[in-house]
Amino acid sequence: MSNHRILTLTFAVAAAVTATGPAQGAIGNEPIQPVAAAKTGNPALAELGKKLYFDTRLSKSGFISCNSCHNLSMGGTDNLKTSIGHNWNKGPINAPTVLNSSMNVAQFWDGRAKDLKAQAGGPIANPGEMASTHELAVDVLQSIPGYVSEFKTVFGSDKVTIDEVTKAIAAFEETLVTPNSRFDKWLRGDKKALNASETAGYRLFKDSGCVACHNGPAVGGNSFQKMGVVAPYKSSSPAEGRVAVTGKDADRFNFKVPTLRNVELTYPYFHDGEAATLRDAVDTMGRLQLGKKFTDGENAQIVAFLKTLTGDQPSFKLPLLPPSSDTTPHPQPFGK
Fold it and tell me: Into how many domains does the chain fold?
């Protein structure tokens, strides 16, 4: 038997076990669990983080904020193949959704940030994204009296630090969960929440082995898996996945499994954004990960199920940002 065939069978067996066996904490022994509503331990910290999330002054240009690439009006992403950064720089990778990101095993597609706090500082200092520095971002905030006062209220000191900035942004992002999807209602016992096509799609999703990777409350996000198990995934993207973090060749093209929560809203799909539609994504995943070619009808049923995973979107009053002072460093939207 060829190594290719062994790999295919091994994956199929693992998928079948996951699909049929009860998952820890599952409702009715389902491999997917409902999303719980957010619990905010420190509302003042989260409120400060919300302001920082929307504040473009953390970028060199004064034009880009966290919300630019993780737009909370667009499913927590930007619906672009790759994001646009400083000076219209083309990003190297698709922006993953920030919604339910607190459930991820790690942050970024390659998992290089262990948590949301570690992730929050990355784009600020990335020359291709917000193109600032941590020092400059802190100087900007320190020059704004309204922020100094709020940081003192939250942290007990009027000296702003990047550690406090990232802690606050992470606290806000932890509130961005999306409970009460129709599928969650179905899991909790409302069997009228899904129609026949959607329930058929869920059965296919399980029986085909999709739940081997897409399981738990986030329907993914809790493991790293190779992109292209049965057949290689061909991409023009320079991203090679987990190998960039571990240096191990075995981790080449291993990426964090994306959450499928709100997946209807977070197109295009995959780390390179090459799948324009859910139909495209389901077809590619079936062929390359499972060795299965879904019929048009099967594909449509799975897509119908996936659309039931859209939950309540974050809803809040937009923050009123404190004004700059005469000493606030000026933005540099043009030039290098």
Answer: 2
SS3 241: strand
Q: Are residues 184 and 170 in the same domain?
A: no
Q: What is the pLDDT of residues 49-63, one digit of tens each?
A: 999 999 999 999 999
Same domain, 30 and 49: no
86 contacts 136 by C-beta, under 8 angstroms: no
**Which residue numbers are catalytic?**
129
Domain ends where: 130, 145, 174?
174
Q: Phi/psi class of residue 256: alpha, beta or left (left: φ > 0; alpha: ψ in -120 to 50)?
A: beta
Query: Can you give the residue range of the structural domain that contains 111?
Result: 43-174
Domain shared by 13 and 54, yes or no: no
pLDDT score recorded for residue 335: 72
Q: What is the DSSP string of 60-125?
A: SSS---HHHHSBTTTTTB-SSSS-B-GGGPBPSS-----TTGGGSSSBSTT--BSSHHHHHHHHHH
Q: How far apart are CA 54 and CA 156, in angstroms?
A: 23
Backbone angles phi, psi at 90, to 5 degrees: -80, 120
pTM (two decimals):
0.91
Both tokens of 238, joined, read: 């320079």
SS3 16: helix
**What is each CA distance from 137 to 61, 71, 89, 94, 134, in whole angstroms?**
12, 21, 20, 25, 5
Q: 201-259 pLDDT, tens per residue?
A: 999 999 999 999 999 999 999 999 999 999 999 999 999 999 999 999 999 999 999 99
Asked if 65 and 146 sit in the same domain, the reply is yes
Structure confidence by residue, pLDDT tens digits, 17-26: 333 333 333 4
Same domain, yes or no, for 56 and 168? yes
Residues 70 and 16 in one domain: no
The verdict on 272 and 157 lying in the same domain is no
16 & 89 share domain: no
